[in-house]
Design goal:
Elements lengths: L1 H17 L6 E2 L6 E4 L3 E3 L5 E9 L14 E8 L7 E4 L7 E4 L2 E8 L3 E7 L1
Parallel strand pairs: 1-3
Antiparallel strand pairs: 2-9, 3-4, 4-5, 5-6, 7-8, 8-9
Length: 121
């Protein structure tokens, strides 16, 4: 009985950790920060950034394509000086910079599940 209770509590802790809606990390303006899909970072003024998804239009392996494609992270910004949530889509080739209100966003690098950005106010 005790063993089952321990296993149940451990499973609940793992499930709870995966469902956290709280901010997971802190970030500084001007510094590189790596976002992971579904994880929220918060900047000094309360601006929150969440990597919603990374679109992948890259050419598949062993296929000849006219365009090589790119990774395009979609980041949702909210809080800070923003009056409403704003999605910013960047690209590793076509659009490395963007803005959310008064915040300038620069894409440094991206993978299928991460985006490294800098944000300036």
């Amino acid at each position: 009985m005790r063993k089952h209770l321990i296993l149940l509590l451990a499973a609940a802790a793992l499930i709870g950790a995966g469902c956290s809606s709280a901010t997971d990390t802190r970030a500084k303006f001007g510094a590189e920060v790596t976002l992971k899909t579904g994880v929220t970072v918060e900047f000094q003024d309360g601006l929150k950034a969440t990597l919603t998804r990374v679109n992948d239009s890259r050419c598949p392996k062993d296929v000849q394509c006219i365009w090589a494609g790119e990774l395009a992270p979609v980041i949702t910004f909210s809080g800070g000086s923003l009056s409403k949530a704003t999605d910013v889509m960047l690209g590793t080739t076509t659009r490395k910079t963007g803005s959310a209100g008064t915040y300038d966003v620069n894409l440094v690098a991206a993978t299928e599940t991460t985006a490294t950005i800098t944000v300036k106010k």
